[in-house]
Amino acid sequence: MKRFIAVSGLTIMLIFSGCSSAKETNLGVSTIDTNGWLSTVAIETVPAPKVAPTPIVVPAPAVIKVDVISLPQADGKVGKVVVSDDDKTTMLDQAWQKVETKHLDKKEILSKEIVESKYRDLLEAMPEEPNNYRMYFKYDSTDIVGDSKILMQIVEDITSNPTLKVDVIGYTDRAGDDAYNKILSMKRAQKVVKLLESKGIDNKLIALDYYGEENPIVPTEDGVANEQNRRVEVTIK
Question: Which helix or strand (DSSP H or E) is residue 188 part of?
Fold first, then answer.
């Protein structure tokens, strides 16, 4: 999980991406994106006068007021933000929806203009959303399905933008046993890394990982082959 923290005055914005879920237990905020990529959460903090600092996710002044705002993704989609305080819980699932943690029963919808005006500095400091690509593979193989167009798109994206990190994550379908699939997903990720290196991409930018048959795009029963799940996901940040 990548976390970008931009601090402007006493406003903290936490941005979560490249994963399917996350949870900040200290603040009682969790985010869920039903499409597999996390939405953005903005958290505003106001310090309490003459009160000792309270540690949260990052060192910050003591918090007496926390506003949580759900921001839409670039395509307009919105994930779900679950906010809890003590034994109370509420969910934000609309764009520009806001709630204060001490008043979870009082949700409101702000206008886009109000949010963009109040949080302009933070919104401008946010990095661009990551670009995501998928490369599919033949059954029980490290051979990529299709032509090399997707690879060239990835290389062009990396070289034409100020890229900080390239995540390469391998997966399999559920045909075969867990241990075998874990190794196969690693080999697929390694194959893509080698292809990127052959195109001049600096290995220092690349982070390789693999999960076997976990996190399928199409859920299936064990032992079932599925071409959409035989993949490597490349995320450019």
Answer: helix 178-198
